[in-house]
Amino acid sequence: MAADPIYVETEEEIPEVVERIRRTSSQETMLVLPARSRLGQSRFNFQLLKNYASRMGKKVTVVCDDPAVQKMASETGFAVFGTVGPAGEGIPSQEPPPPAPKKWWQRKGPSLSPHIGVVAPTRLITKTVTELKPGRFLLYMAALMIVLVGLSALAVFIPSAQVTLIAQAAPYTQRDVEIQAEPGKAPIRVRVSQVSRTDSQGFKTTGVKAVPLAPALAAVVYTNNLPVPHCPGLDCGSPGLVFPRGQRLRDSKDSLEFAQISPNTLVRWKSTATATVQAVLPGSVGNVGDNVITTIEDLVYNNVSVTNPLAAGGGSDPSTTPLMTESDFDAGRAQLEQSLHQEIAQQLVAGLQKGEKLSSTIVFGAPQFNTDHKPGDTVPSFSGTMTVLGEGDFYVDSDVAKAYTTYLEQRVPTNQQLLTDSGVKVDYRILNATTGGHLTFIGNATAFVAPKLDENKILASIVGRPLQGAKFYLQTLPIRSSTIEEQPIPLPLMPLLARRITIKYIVEPGQAGTLPPAASPSP
Could you tell me what percent of the chain has a pLDDT over 70? Predict the structure, then answer.
């Protein structure tokens, strides 16, 4: 017993019925045909239905109360029933009851079959009746030929058909695509421009040289002209005179006092010794001249003297002096370099030509920076001069879009076609830029693709073919839907000439709609 019988509508054709059978999940299907169903009007329809059911591996049962339809279906090989029972089972048609026996008075003798005879003519056919008239015969033949030629022309030249194929576009993307470009080579035109700029600028120093308050220092020479003491005596056995640390000396000219900072100094008899003294009063005032520190305070011996062979020095008053430092040099260099970079960039932008874009990466050479002072000089300011060479790379934006479009076309599957009319969206940036105009672009390219159809093959497959067969063939194509419109009137056959068939291929846009065709560089 078949589940879910298929009730066929009166106007349904073979394609619709076959599609409904294909969609059923059961392997046994029951078709219930109404009176005057198009499917039951031809034995050829049952033969097609039988072939498609065999291909799909399904068992089809035909239910119809029309004896003629039952006969055609049965002869084709279908199981035939007259109606459908309450449980969905098929109920065979009942045989008509035998006629009731007639009474003796109703019986008649055997019926006589009519006999038709032909009476021989009573006179001969005259020559006038049998005479052939050539003029009238030729006229009839010509008229017949004209009618046949007209019918042939009507069948061949007048009918036309328009086949509309509708497909759904799908997005196709290639990501992180790198494309190289350099001057003089395809696919992207590159132009290199070099700009050199020189500028000078003054800068203030920020360093400070601090001079602290310091006493003056001097080297003095003690001279002991006393003889060696005799023994016995007070100084018997003494090696000489000892001047202790802190011994006070005096400047005989300015009366400035100095103190010995060297350890205790022994000056032997008839000899000399050197010691270091420091001015008691700090500052530059202690920087006295040579041979002026000549007085030894609290000296009890004669023939003992002191002097300073060299002038005293090192005494200083507290002060601060501006100083050029390394940081001042670096800051001036950076400030001047930044200013020159901006000037070079502005000059390169001013040189843009129609259709070009400037690479965001400008290649700058090493700056040449010279100053009138060097770090460590005690100056309040200094001047610097710098020269910078910058290289700008100009490229044609439309070439970038074309290069990514070509890249997509080369990688589209063979059974698909790129829909460039819907636009190709390109997002890119310059990954690397080196001297000489060598650029590396990296980006994403997106476009729509649709199934690729061979129109010549389609025409050859449907020309002169039955209309239903042409529709079945179009359903095998990788498209969403198809329609056939015949002019001037619908015919059961497609036109016999391929030039009378027009194929219109429509691709509906995808969810993203139409893409912008221009490239857009990313920041």
Answer: 86
